[in-house]
């Protein structure tokens, strides 16, 4: 075991906070250099916003913070493989590196489904680092859905 | 020539308003029954928000208006073929019908690129009606980019 990088630790905490609000537990963080500049928890239901996945919440907050729509030199850390919507947002935001935890065979769009960053028309592809903190991220999701069955 | 449906007329007006603000001219409208409940213009630059495509702006406004994250029985009208981010948002929002104007071979994700609604993992597919108002929508985009060259 090695300790998780601090941004993924923060993303997992945001996922737990989402679960505490009754939302599917996914969390995300944007870093600029080594600094966390934005954190987002999944909140489509409570926020009345179908686009409010953790990644979108964090990307919007980071862009507002930096006063730009291009997150150059920024990295995104998220507990679950991003969906097509979020992968598209990552490309639009020009995220430099994408770190994610658990794979998502049903909804993921990075290594599953449309594999968006492998599409010839994709205009920006981040460096991709999967599997960081995946055990804890997946356990959060399993616990959440088990409690609802 | 037949007159454009009122929602596409409103989406084209929103696209023109975006151009007037220096944004790539794309506009969108959400209807509930025959009523327009939300309008969105593309505004990533001015809004410091890489996710602020016209469709996302309109979907978020419609969901907030209705107080839900599921736009059941709602239709989206947009002047340009949606990208992957927006197509993903359309699926998450459970949009019933998608009407769009101009095709977008470079950035579109409906009839081009990843063709998201044809992916086996896609969990919601709206009815799709392309080409409505495409001449005017494409002319707006051509004019915008020609003025910037």
From TrEMBL, chains A, B:
SUPFAM superfamilies according to UniProt: Cytidine deaminase-like
UniProt domain CMP/dCMP-type deaminase: residue ranges: 2-111
Keyword Nucleotide-binding belongs to the record: no
Catalytic activity: adenosine(34) in tRNA + H2O + H(+) = inosine(34) in tRNA + NH4(+)
Annotated cofactor note: Binds 1 zinc ion per subunit.
GO MF, any single term: tRNA-specific adenosine-34 deaminase activity
UniProt KW Zinc keyword: yes
Binding site for Zn(2+): 53, 83, 86
GO biological process: tRNA wobble adenosine to inosine editing
UniProt xrefs under Pfam families: MafB19-deam
Cofactor: Zn(2+)
Enzyme Commission code: 3.5.4.33
Active-site residues, record numbering mapped to chain: 55 (proton donor)
UniProtKB keywords: Hydrolase, Metal-binding, tRNA processing, Zinc
PANTHER family named among the record's database cross-references: CYTOSINE DEAMINASE FAMILY MEMBER, TRNA-SPECIFIC ADENOSINE DEAMINASE
Subunit structure: Homodimer.
Family recorded in the similarity comment: Belongs to the cytidine and deoxycytidylate deaminase family. ADAT2 subfamily.
Function: Catalyzes the deamination of adenosine to inosine at the wobble position 34 of tRNA(Arg2).
Protein name: tRNA-specific adenosine deaminase
Species: Stakelama pacifica
Gene transcribed to yield this protein: tadA
